[in-house]
Design brief:
By secondary structure, this protein is an alpha/beta fold. It has 2 domains: about 270 residues, 3-Layer(aba) Sandwich (Rossmann fold), CATH 3.40.50; about 190 residues, Glycogen Phosphorylase B (Rossmann fold), CATH 3.40.50.2000. It is built from 17 helices and 20 strands. The strands form 4 sheets. The protein has a 9-stranded mixed beta sheet, sandwiched between helices. The protein has a 6-stranded parallel beta sheet with strand order 17-16-15-18-19-20, with helices on both faces. Strand 3 and strand 4 form a beta hairpin. It is globular.
């Protein structure tokens, strides 16, 4: 198959969250499976300096954007056999300090930036000499490309490739004033309740949900959750309308990076057969973060964006209670200022039990995943989540709230004692999380049982080969049944 992926971020070039991990890995493993893959992403500041093999593509863009036209260019990098990355150059839009915002405030022209990017994606889909058979879009930043491709298909006589839109997090929708819809240069008939209009404004993600041929999310449970009023973020009605075209596919893990043997970030290798290196890694992590080296004290950890979605409010409150017990806690992350301050204060009050590092450090994230006994992930909602799957591979028992991909990927003893590899709780409350942590302390006191959980987790297979194969099945559905899943209304 010939597949064009489009994303506003992708590893190793740019990243703010799990979107980048997913798209970068999906592109790599689709190419390895024998497909011809193009990945389109913006040429952000500093990329050409970091990747000198990004070369000019001798392709100039001049695309309509409302009443005017905007010029740009295309660069490319041959990332692997069968995988070409195309970078959209537009210095006014993408030569900035960050991807979407600065100092916590969104860029005022994000509508212009990502509608231009979406149009560039459709332009490449139309004119690339290898003629992509389908376009796979990711999140609101590219969702409008589904509307643009459909409009060109209907009005210009071009047989546009079918589109698949993956929703990574429904909470982020790309909502703008109604006047911004003019930037799409699309007929006003698309700006209606069954299309791009949302309570009088322009909603990029809703436009994509209405116009894409197929929709996917990043876990089966999240695909069900977003059709409910509780987690539909105002778009549950539209998603129920498109439910026949909606599929949930659990994200994968790149085990070439997330591995316990031969990992450059880990000084001590280990495996499910020999966990000795994990104990040594725990002692090394305690030294690195200034905690007492007490091997029999259970060590809990979190690597996370510090946001309400991630359950930071109930986690802070539960830790204030639970640190009275014989336990330690380490955190690496950044985000909302109130949570950063809260975790710093927690570490100041419990210097022998709590270590906090604000920011991000790739190597330290691996060492926390490997060195901890338990991993805390009490998300309010979680489309997929990756850290719980990293933890399972690293023999670190995850404690998660049963939502989204967390529920799909972790097995609690109440579900299947023989296959149990983590601890789940359901109620979103400090009390429920603290109870789950107390269960962990009881589990830790029984090394044989804890080892059973660890071995189960390390045996789980969330490989990208499996996930890429699932996406290829979705693509075949699009290519083998043209027009059957295309939205009929609008």
């Amino acid at each position: 198959m010939r597949i064009l992926l489009a994303s506003s971020e992708a590893l190793p070039f740019s990243k703010t969250g799990g979107l980048a991990d997913m798209v970068g890995s999906l592109a790599k493993f689709l190419a390895r499976a024998g497909n011809e893959v193009g990945l389109v992403t913006p040429l952000y500041r500093g990329l050409r300096e970091r990747f000198p093999d990004i070369l000019p593509f001798d392709w100039r863009l001049e695309l309509p954007l409302g009443p005017g036209r905007v010029a740009g260019g295309v660069w490319r990098r041959q990332a692997a056999d069968g995988l070409t990355v195309y970078f959209i150059e537009q210095k006014d839009f993408f030569e900035r300090g960050d991807l979407y915002q600065e100092r916590g405030v969104d860029y005022a022209d994000n509508a212009e930036r990502f509608l231009f990017f979406s149009k560039a994606v459709v332009h490449l889909a139309r004119y690339l000499p290898w003629k992509p058979e389908l376009i796979h879009l990711h999140d609101w930043q590219t969702a409008a490309a589904a509307l643009i491709a459909r409009d060109q298909r209907l009005s210009e006589g071009w047989v546009a490739p079918p589109t698949c839109l993956t929703i990574h997090n429904l909470a982020y929708q790309g909502q703008f004033p109604a006047a911004k819809f003019a930037l799409a240069n699309a007929p006003a008939s698309y700006f209606q309740p069954d299309g791009a209009e949302f309570y009088g404004g322009f909603n990029c993600l809703k436009a994509g949900i209405a116009c894409a041929d197929l929709l996917t999310t990043v876990s089966p449970r999240y695909a069900r959750e977003i059709t409910t009023e509780a987690l539909g973020c105002g778009l549950d009605g539209e998603l129920r309308r498109r439910q026949g075209a909606l599929h949930g596919i659990l994200n994968g893990v790149d085990y070439e990076e997330w591995k316990t043997e031969g990992n450059p970030y880990l000084a001590h290798s280990y495996s499910a057969r020999d966990l000795g290196g994990k104990a040594a890694g725990k002692a090394a992590l305690q030294r690195e973060l200034g905690l007492p080296e007490t091997p029999r004290t259970p060590l809990f950890g979190t690597v996370s964006r510090l946001a309400e979605q991630k359950g930071m409010d109930i986690q802070l409150a539960a830790l204030q209670e639970m640190l009275a017990a014989d336990m330690q806690f380490v955190l690496l992350g950044s985000g909302q200022r109130e949570y950063e301050r809260g975790f710093r204060r927690l570490a100041e009050r419990h210097p022998a039990k709590c270590a906090v590092r604000i920011g991000f450090d790739t190597g330290l994230s691996h060492r926390i995943e490997a060195g901890c006994d338990f991993y805390l992930m009490p998300s309010r909602f979680e489309p997929c989540g990756l850290n719980q799957m990293y933890s399972l591979r690293y023999g670190t028992i995850p404690i998660v709230r049963a939502t989204g991909g967390l529920d799909d990927s972790v097995v609690d003893a109440s579900q299947d004692a023989a296959r149990a590899d983590g601890i789940k709780f359901t109620e979103y409350s400090t009390r429920a999380l603290a109870k789950a942590m107390r269960k962990a302390l009881v589990l830790y006191a029984e090394p044989g049982l804890a080892g059973h959980y660890q071995r189960n987790g390390m045996a789980r297979d969330f490989s990208w080969e499996r996930t890429a194969a699932a996406y290829q099945g979705i693509y075949r559905l699009l290519l083998d049944t043209p027009g059957k899943t295309f939205p009929e209304r609008i």
